[in-house]
Specification:
The complex is a heterodimer of chains A (270) and B (290). With 270 residues, chain A is mainly alpha-helical. Chain A has 2 domains: 161 residues, no CATH class; 89 residues, no CATH class. In chain A, strands 1-2 form a two-stranded antiparallel ribbon. In chain A, helix 3 packs parallel to helix 6. The model of chain A has no long low-confidence stretch (mean pLDDT 85). Chain B has 290 residues and is of the alpha/beta class. Chain B has one domain: 3-Layer(aba) Sandwich (Rossmann fold), CATH 3.40.50.300. A 6-stranded mixed sheet of chain B has the order 6-7-8-3-9-10, sandwiched between helices. A 4-stranded antiparallel sheet of chain B has the order 2-1-4-5, with helices on one face. In chain B, helix 3 runs parallel beside helix 5 and helix 10 packs parallel to helix 11. The mean pLDDT of chain B is 86. Classes of the chains: A mainly alpha (270), B alpha/beta (290). Chains A and B meet through helix 8 and helix 9 of A and helix 2, strand 6, helix 3, helix 4 and helix 5 of B. Bound molecules: adenosine-5'-triphosphate (ATP) and magnesium ion. The site of magnesium ion (MG) has 4 residues of chain B, from helix 1.
């Protein structure tokens, strides 16, 4: 169950997107996110959605995997959608006491839902196609300018690497401990909120203890392998930009230009 | 051969308090360069604690550990000591740092500041040596315990240390995997001259070493060639230690008064000795097929 979470998982492959430079992917992703919000009418939103879908197709990863990561935030999608339906303005469609549905609200809801879905899709593309260490390496390099402000860039990147590595481990461990406690007769599925939170304590405490032990072991293993912070460290895989990144950047710039033109000539919905 | 690691009057306790027992209780040991030493002893005898002293993870409460003349207490030698003594820890689960097998194997080399191309070469070589090359793009948490253990070994091999200390590397492996790892270790020792310190519970593995050191309650209890150490079958049994089956059979028969050598190692040698004992007069050679 907890193990089904695909968010933040890496799926090795050989597609165009897999081969792109991680730094380019991060920067272009950020640009796409901005433009998903810049798109103010259906035409430009459709453009961004099509581009996102195209990117998703180019990863050659089964669409099922994207649906899985969507499932995690399904609740958020529905909830924000509903809220937007009820809080719109404009021509009233249906009214009952204080509940009022307007055209504006429906438009808002559609926009918000499409935006969240495309957002999740493109961010999944980043984590699905980039190995965790490429990802953290790219973040380290992109944040390097912050070093003048004494930000510990390398340490932040290393923390992310370890976190990414141990998230699945800890999820599995949670599963194991829960099953072990259930086997001892612990009841985690019934009762009110307070009882359930109380029932979680016997899971959380062993989880904390084992995390600390793991952290200690890992620190020792890293020391054994001469880990000494970021100074003098080299990387096996050196990130380098290629024609792919240039092509992707040009293509996306054209799309963004299209979005801006659309925004000017087609009236905004919101 | 010259001394590579020297342990002098090593006492170590985990807690500061005066009355806590010593996990290592006066160890004196010299390990020669290029040798293959097996360390055996029952659970809790202090083997892992000793291993962690070899690369300065733990520092002696009193006494000294010298690696190529460098004291492990000297902070300035820390990096050099860890570079020359590679330690594979007992539990493979928490030793893997990166989210992809090959990237984890590369971790140590990256810390040493080796150029990328050479890292690539070393990583591929190390992964082939432990027979995990096909898994190089996998995520470590989808591997079995034994496979993780091999990755951990590869990570150390890739750093090309002068000495490799392995803490029960075969505990989680199947018999075939165990053979493979032991063969790899022997090959590293013979062909590359890497000093090997192997901590193990399998006496069949200890027999392959040049020297066996037996630890009991934090003290060196027996030390010598496998032949010398395993001759003390009775003593070993008293200390909850195993001896190779063939050795035990030989010793039991000898105790019953049969004319057998003092100590045999391995099944072939035992068979040979028995054959000599039972051989009808006149025949000289041992048949090659048995
Ligand atoms: N982190 C620790 N804190 C306190 N005591 C410890 C710690 N680790 C080990 N000990 C104690 O030190 C002694 C030696 O432990 P060590 O782990 O070296 O044994 P070992 O010979 O490696 O055993 P095994 O065969 O089970 O691996 C044991 O009595 C153990 O209880
Ligand atoms: Mg141990």
């Amino acid at each position: 169950m907890v193990r089904d979470i695909t968010l933040g998982q890496f799926l090795p492959g050989h597609s165009f997107i897999h081969k792109m430079d991680a730094r380019a992917k991060i920067l272009l992703l950020m640009a796409i996110v901005v433009f998903i919000f810049v798109a103010g009418n259906y035409v430009s939103l459709l453009m961004m959605t099509i581009v996102s879908l195209l990117i998703v197709l180019m990863t050659r990863i089964k669409f099922r995997m994207y649906l899985k990561s969507m499932k995690v935030i399904l609740f958020v999608i529905i909830f924000t959608g509903l809220i937007n339906v009820f809080y719109g303005s404009g021509e009233v469609l249906w009214e009952w006491q204080f509940i009022r549905i307007t055209w504006g609200g429906i438009h808002n809801a559609i926009f918000v839902i499409i935006r969240i879905i495309t957002l999740v899709m493109v961010s999944s593309v980043l984590t699905f196609t980039t190995s965790p260490s490429d990802l953290t390496d790219a973040i380290e390099r992109l944040l390097k300018p912050l070093k003048i402000f004494h930000v510990k860039v390398h340490e932040i990147a290393m923390m992310m690497t370890i976190a990414l590595r141990f998230i699945p481990v800890l999820l599995e461990e949670t599963d194991k401990i829960m099953n072990a406690q259930k086997a001892r007769g612990a009841d985690m599925e019934s009762g009110g909120i307070i009882r359930r939170v109380k029932a979680l304590m016997p899971v959380l405490i062993p989880l904390f203890v084992s995390s600390f032990r793991r952290a200690n072991d890992l620190a020792m293993a890293m020391e054994c392998r001469c880990y000494n912070g970021g100074n003098g460290r080299t990387r096996m895989k050196v990130l380098h930009f290629s024609w792919r990144d240039l092509a992707a950047a040009i293509f996306l710039l054209l799309t963004f230009a299209g979005v801006i033109v659309c925004n000017i000539f087609v009236p905004a919905v919101m | 051969m010259s001394a590579f690691i020297e342990v002098k009057d090593l006492f170590f306790r985990y807690e500061e308090a005066e009355n806590t027992p010593f996990a290592l209780d006066g160890v004196n040991l010299t390990i020669d360069k290029g040798s293959f030493v097996a360390i055996v002893g029952h659970n809790g005898s202090g083997k892992s604690t000793l291993a962690k002293h070899f690369n300065s993870l733990y520092l002696p409460t009193t006494g000294d550990v010298l690696v190529e003349g460098m004291n492990t207490k000297d902070d300035e030698h820390l990096f050099d000591i860890r570079k020359s003594v590679g330690l594979v820890l007992q539990n493979p689960d928490n030793q893997i740092v990166a989210g992809i097998v090959e990237e984890d194997v590369a971790f140590g080399c990256e810390n040493l500041g080796i150029p990328p191309k050479e890292i690539r070469q070393r990583v591929d070589e190390a992964l082939r040596a432990v027979d995990m090359y096909e898994y190089r793009r996998h995520s470590p948490d989808k591997l079995s315990g034994g496979q993780k253990q091999r990755i951990a070994i590869a990570g150390i091999i890739a750093m090309e240390p002068v000495c490799i200390v392995l803490d029960e590397p075969t505990a989680m492996l199947d018999p075939q995997g165990r053979d493979e790892v032991i063969q790899t270790i022997q090959k590293l020792n013979r062909e590359k001259g890497i000093t090997i310190i192997l901590i193990t519970h399998y006496m069949e593995e200890a027999v392959l070493a040049d020297r066996v050191v037996m630890i009991d309650s934090g003290k060196v209890f027996l030390d010598g060639t496998p032949r010398e150490v395993f001759a003390n079958v009775g003593l070993l049994k008293q200390h909850r230690l195993d001896v190779p089956q063939a050795t035990e059979l030989n010793a039991k028969l000898r105790n019953c008064g049969f004319d057998l050598p003092e100590c045999v190692l391995g099944e072939e040698e035992c068979a040979e000795a028995l054959f000599r004992l039972l051989k009808p007069a006149g025949k000289e050679d041992i048949p090659t097929e048995e």
